[in-house]
UniProtKB/TrEMBL annotation:
InterPro entries: Diverse_Catalytic_Enzymes, HD/PDEase_dom, HD_domain, YqeK. Residues 26-140 form the HD domain. The keyword Oxidoreductase does not apply. Coiled coil: none annotated. It comes from Enterococcus diestrammenae. This is bis(5'-nucleosyl)-tetraphosphatase (symmetrical). Its EC number is 3.6.1.41. It comes from the Bacteria. SMART domains: HDc.
Length: 194
């Protein structure tokens, strides 16, 4: 029997499909994101079931080969500028397309939360923010500042989005990594003083 309205698969079946796509370590991360996303959904009044499904599927495509992303970007008419980026950017934006086709998830809010989970965006729904933040603070994460991010997340979700956007950008700059334009848009909307 179908256990939710967003996917033809119930949570158990979905979990199994997700688990088959990734390492034990990444699957543990996914379960941590789910637990955190459901807690944030309860705190901020989003649908916990939607948060659960978005969290379970957010990194679904992360271990797919580069060639598969390149093929899908061309075949499904994504912006070809994506070909200049890599897995870090593809697994959310393009990964949502794998989730839709292979897991039958058609809920546009869930798909958008998956698309935005790495970079954020200027416009973010409550669910987008929950997945973006839960991914950053789930119990398995350990980096300087994560404890502060966890505390902020349960006080003010927008402040947590800002904290994450700023610190992710600082980290990328420190590593001299290219910044995806959407990450800058996120910074300008949620961090920069107007
Ligand atoms: O998939 P996860 O490891 O759980 O976390 P994620 O999807 O938030 O981030 C994946 C990676 O993407 C992480 O190493 C940081 C990186 N990233 C985020 N924004 C940008 C970025 N990498 C580049 N080059 N540019 C960005 O703007
Ligand atoms: Fe991710
Ligand atoms: Fe993740």
């Amino acid at each position: 029997m179908k256990a939710n309205n967003y996917s033809a698969l119930d949570r158990e079946a979905l979990m199994q499909k997700v688990q088959m796509q990734m390492s034990t370590k990444r699957f543990k991360h996914v379960l941590g994101v789910e637990e955190t996303a459901v807690a944030l959904a309860e705190k901020y009044g989003a649908a916990p079931e939607k948060a659960s499904i978005a969290a379970l599927t957010h990194d679904y495509a992360k271990e797919r080969p580069k060639e598969e992303f390149q093929m899908v970007i061309r075949r499904e008419n994504f912006d070809l500028d994506l070909l200049n980026w890599n897995n870090a950017i593809w697994h959310g934006i393009v990964g949502a397309n794998f989730v839709q086709r292979e897991l039958g998830i058609e809920d546009e809010e869930i798909l958008q939360a998956i698309r935005l989970h790495t970079t954020g965006a200027a416009e973010m729904t409550l669910l987008d923010k929950i997945i973006y933040v839960a991914d950053y603070i789930e119990p398995g994460r350990s980096f300087p500042g994560v404890q502060e991010a966890r505390e902020i997340a349960f006080l003010n979700l927008d402040d947590a989005v800002a904290y994450e956007a700023k610190h992710t950008l600082l980290h990328l700059l420190e590593q001299e990594q290219p910044i995806y334009p959407k990450s800058i848009e996120t910074y300008n909307r949620w961090v920069a003083k107007k």
